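Bumping my old thread because nobody answered last time. Still need a sequence for this structure:
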């Protein structure tokens, strides 16, 4: 059974950092494309970053490029999102997503950036 459990969210001041984690089960994160997606209050879900399956090629939304880093650890079967230089506009619920034979979503973790 595929399961994604996101964690690591919280409240931070502008300019701060957070590291999100997504623990996967039921499949191997190293074999599939994985993404982070966020949804701010009153807005549609927005793609943040993707890491490719076998190639590991990473891609980022322009709004986070240079500040966020997506990575994974096959041993821990986890996906990560390192977020630096956080801005108020990064405030959102962050979801991890697995692109398997179907798309699977984690439950989301809240990130709040405010002074």
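Sorry it took so long. Here it is:
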């Amino acid at each position: 059974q595929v399961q994604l459990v996101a964690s690591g969210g919280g409240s931070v001041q502008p300019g701060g950092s957070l590291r999100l984690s997504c623990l996967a089960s039921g499949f191997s994160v190293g074999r599939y494309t994985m993404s982070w997606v966020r949804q701010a209050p009153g807005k549609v879900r927005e793609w943040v970053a993707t890491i490719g399956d076998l190639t590991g090629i990473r891609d980022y939304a322009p709004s986070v490029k240079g500040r966020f880093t997506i990575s994974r650890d096959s041993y821990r079967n986890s996906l990560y999102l390192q977020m630096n230089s956080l801005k108020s506009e990064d405030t959102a619920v962050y979801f991890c997503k697995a692109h398997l034979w179907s798309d699977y979503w984690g439950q989301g973790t809240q990130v709040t950036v405010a002074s």
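The mean pLDDT is 96. Let me know if any region looks off to you.
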